[in-house]
Amino acid sequence: xxxxxxxxxxxxxxxxxxxxxxxxxxxxxxxxxxxxxxxxxxxxxxxxxxxxxxxxxxxxxxxxxxxxxxxxxxxxxxxxxxxxxxxxxxxxxxxxxxxxxxxxxxxxxxxxxxxxxxxxxxxxxxxxxxxxxxxxxxxxxxxxxxxxxxxxxxxxxxxxxxxxxxxxxxxxxxxxxxxxxxxxxxxxxxxxxxxxxxxxxxxxxxxxxxxxxxxxxxxxxxxxxxxxxxxxxxxxxxxxxxxxxxxxxxxxxxxxxxxxxxxxxxxxxxxxxxxxxxxxxxxxxxxxxxxxxxxxxxxxxxxxxxxxxxxxxxxxxxxxxxxxxxxxxxxxxxxxxxxxxxxxxxxxxxxxxxxxxxxxxxxxxxxxxxxxxxxxxxxxxxxxxxxxxxxxxxxxxxx
Length: 399
Prior knowledge:
This protein is of the alpha+beta class. The chain has four domains: 82 residues, Metallocarboxypeptidase-like (Alpha-Beta Plaits, 2-Layer Sandwich); 67 residues, Ubiquitin-like (UB roll); 64 residues; 68 residues, no CATH class. The chain contains nine helices and 22 strands. The strands form six sheets. The protein has a five-stranded antiparallel beta sheet. The chain has a four-stranded antiparallel beta sheet with strand order 2-3-1-4. Strands 10-12-8-22 form a four-stranded antiparallel beta sheet, with no helix packed on it. Strand 16 and strand 17 form a beta hairpin. The two termini are 75 Å apart.
C-alpha cells in the first residue's frame, strides 16, 4: 500500500468531478483503455474521484466525446509541488545535494578517537592504526574491522585487547593495556636474598634457603644474606628459591637542596589564538606563518564540526598562546629552610613509609647559593631483596 501511495505521489494525482452526458459510456471507455481511477463517489449529483495527472487529459478528452463535463478539484504530488516552487528549484537541488553528500560521506572515516590508554600515547595508537588502514578519509566498506582488531593486538606493544567500533563516520578505538608483572623473581626460579641497604641485622626469618649471616651481623649493600644454593653432607648441590624476612638497623644520609635564587614563570595575562582548518585530514593554517615573539606556553585544542549530529570531515585546531616573563625568585634563609623541610616530609611519606624511623638528626649549610638540609637517619626496616641465580638454561632462554 505504501509503495502504491509513493508512486502516485511521485507521478502526481488529480481529484476531479464529472457530471451530465453519457456517464456509463465514459466509464466503459476508461476501463477499455486501462486508465487508473479510484475512490469514485457520487457527491451532490456529480461523480468525484482520483486519477493520475498524466491520465486526466485523456479522461477529459473522452468525457467531451460523451458529453460529460469534467472539472479539476485538487492537485497533489511531486510534479505540482515542484511546479509551485519552480523558481526556488536551485534551493531544493542544493538541499538534495547536501543530503546526498552526507549520505556518501557516511561511508568514509572522518573522526578517529582512542580510549582506555593510560601509558600509551594517543599518537602512537593512531599512527599504528593508520598503518592498518584506519585513518581519516578511509573508505569503510573496504575495511575488515575484525581482522584489523586481531592484527592491532600484535602490533600495539603493551596492549592485551583492542576493539574497533564505528558509528556513522566516527570510529573509536578502545584498548586495554597489559598489566606489567611486578619486578620479582618467579617462585619457580632459583634466587638468593641480598641486602638492598647497609645495616646491622636485628631479625632474620628464613623460610627457604641457607642463611650465611646471623642476627647482629653487619651487611653491606649487595651482600649475600640467604643463599639459594644448598649443599648437603654428601656434597650434592641443589638450587632453591630463597625466601626470608630480613630486618636491620640502617643508617644513611639524605640531602635536600634549595637554591636561594631561581627563575620563576610569571604570566603577563596576554593571550593569542591561532586557528588551523582540518579539511579531509589536510591542515590549512588560517594565519600568516610568522613566529610568535616572546616566551609563551601553547595549549592546543580541537573542535569537531557536525551537521544534524553527523560528524563532518572538517575541524578546527586552536593553539592558545599564554605569554609569560621569567622573574627572579629569591628565598630568605628561613624560607629556604621551610621549603627543604617540606621536601624532607614528602620523602619520608613516600620512600620511608614502610620503615620505622628510630632517630634523625638534621643540619643546615649554605653553599654556592644553596641551602642544603642534610638529615642523618637511623631506621628499622626490611632490607632483603631477591636476586635471581642464572643457570646455563636460564641464560640461554634470556639470550
